[in-house]
Amino acid sequence: MGSETAGLEARQPVMADVAKLAGVSHQTVSRVLNGAPHVRPGTRDRVLAAIRELDYRPNSAARALVTRRSQTLGVVSFESTLYGPASMLDGIERAARSAGYFVSVASLRSLDSRSVQEAVDRLRDQGVEGIVVIAPQTSAVSAVAKVSSSVPVVAVGSGARSSIPTVTVDNRSGAEAATRQLLDLGHRTVHHLAGPGGWLESQDRQEGWRRALEAAGAPVPTVAVGDWSARSGYEAGQRMARLEGVTAVFCANDHMALGLLRALHESGRPVPGDISVVGFDDIPEAAYFIPPLTTVRQDFGELGRRALELLVAELGGTDQPIARVQIAPEMVLRRSTGPAHRG
Amino acid sequence: MGSETAGLEARQPVMADVAKLAGVSHQTVSRVLNGAPHVRPGTRDRVLAAIRELDYRPNSAARALVTRRSQTLGVVSFESTLYGPASMLDGIERAARSAGYFVSVASLRSLDSRSVQEAVDRLRDQGVEGIVVIAPQTSAVSAVAKVSSSVPVVAVGSGARSSIPTVTVDNRSGAEAATRQLLDLGHRTVHHLAGPGGWLESQDRQEGWRRALEAAGAPVPTVAVGDWSARSGYEAGQRMARLEGVTAVFCANDHMALGLLRALHESGRPVPGDISVVGFDDIPEAAYFIPPLTTVRQDFGELGRRALELLVAELGGTDQPIARVQIAPEMVLRRSTGPAHRG
DNA sequence: ACCCCGATTGTGAGCGTGAACAAACGGAAC
DNA sequence: GTTCCGTTTGTTCACGCTCACAATCGGGGT
């Protein structure tokens, strides 16, 4: 039976069907599909015609089974709702596509090690060939480093001091540039609204800020700490507005800067007339804050792309040393910064 | 050879290895793994122990090959960098996970039909069982409807008048509520900054706005058109600031509202003193605009979740009629709206 | 005319799993 | 003690593809 059972519901055509229609063996079809050499052009054409006619599509599971390659990469991401992570994911996906890979995502509920473990396991169960982790928190990265058995892993957006390859923006030099920029405008010192503890970005940006101040011989004020949210920036801003001698603030990200701007506005402290503000990230909205925000741009898409390149290289086989790619951020000057008032 | 070749690099253990270690047949291992009945508890325990000892993980490709189910769903998304799409993706992923599916993403370069076709094909080649499309533009949705052969498709975020199941926010009633809100505050009429043509959201929100005006017997001003970006909102705002008689503006999204707020600010038109502004979406930043933005909240995560539920139901088999889920949006009152000034 | 070699095509095996069927087991009913 | 039936386990096959190898074809050299 089989061939003559012209069942009404035609099952998906398989390679053998194409072969029969083209009058060749299934192996020849396979050769055409995989671009193998030694196929006579005429034969190839007949096979391709048969493929089109049947609308045949190779079964990826069967292929994966025999080649042991799923053509799939996994992405673990944490707050994928935010602009940064979302952009990195986007960059990763595009790069993966052009490298011939599919992308499967697993988002993290929380940042504890168990949750990371779970996400990575999930992806491994699916048979991904490699994993990109978008999880900028110290704990997540170290959790991943522990887990990384048997599947290559690359961290992106952070994790510069872990045992796995990473791609990040140079947070330290970005923060330094921002701080120096303010000092150059004549500010005696620069206050800092940092990100939450445990995030490498927070640490690095804070360190860059501190270093710039010290290099200039400026006093180092107490650090305010937020949680990246506009709300936390707002609250910090209310506190700072009451402080004496604050003329410049470097915020660890644009969202907190947004909240800070509003708090200063409501407290009657004009920006930049009274206080200058700098952010970090350059989210698309930053140019439309009131006033437009001077900030440090990171190219998240590029980060994602580079991370994927790194992963693909690693998959390539020749195991190179653990790579640490750092991308230089770029200062974007807008109207939230100005010269220190003579005071 | 084979069994005695204790190769240094141990290959991934397979079911047979587990079976041998546990002293059972591979089929029994399979039964344990799939929770099949009729396995003696003692046997199950031995198998589980063997699985743990070898750190065995089932080969998903082999399973997919034989069951013809990949346990994978695809997501096609367009501007996945924006808050809305990113949140929907997040919601989809979470829901998929708890339904036992993996999620594979394919982002669109552009919104033409060819590009959509390409993305869908890509996912089908990967063997996804169903697809969620996050692509709120008319053309994309209709392209998908054409393509949807052989794989169930659900559209989310838009597409309320297509031939495929959809999950959306009720844009019309949201826009109506926003407009009515402004009219109730005493404004003679409400101007509208619409989204770009070709987007269903734009159309529906504009229609809701118009309907509310007509219901109140208010004049219907010319519509300004933006492209969702803050920049376009800014430009529209500059134009509106020069117009006579503008006391209230309903923007089709929060980003444009942000730009509009800045333009009004720079033109010396206080909000809400001179002009009231309402947005749509309630992005997390909206509460920290200057002034905080009154807007219409959509729960993007919920949209994603519902879309996935719909898709899973469709996969369930019993083909139900084409579903149209609409979620009610919610007005969020903040300080960007106030009573019309007398005069 | 015959042999050799590269180009081209076909054949068979096996990837790791689940499904169908068969076999073995063990207790209850007679 | 025998029969019957439900529980438990094993055997065999197929899923659709790629890989290794064998077979065939065809032209150039001798």
TrEMBL record, chains A, B:
SUPFAM superfamilies per record: lambda repressor-like DNA-binding domains, Periplasmic binding protein-like I
Record's keyword terms, sorted: DNA-binding, Transcription, Transcription regulation
Xref: PROSITE patterns: HTH_LACI_1, HTH_LACI_2
Superkingdom in the source lineage: Bacteria
Pfam families named in the record: LacI (PF00356), Peripla_BP_3 (PF13377)
Residue ranges occupied by any HTH lacI-type domain in the UniProt entry: 13-67
Coiled coil: none
Gene3D superfamilies: 3.40.50.2300, lambda repressor-like DNA-binding domains
GO molecular function per UniProt: DNA-binding transcription factor activity; transcription cis-regulatory region binding
CDD domains per record: HTH_LacI, PBP1_LacI
Protein name: LacI family transcriptional regulator
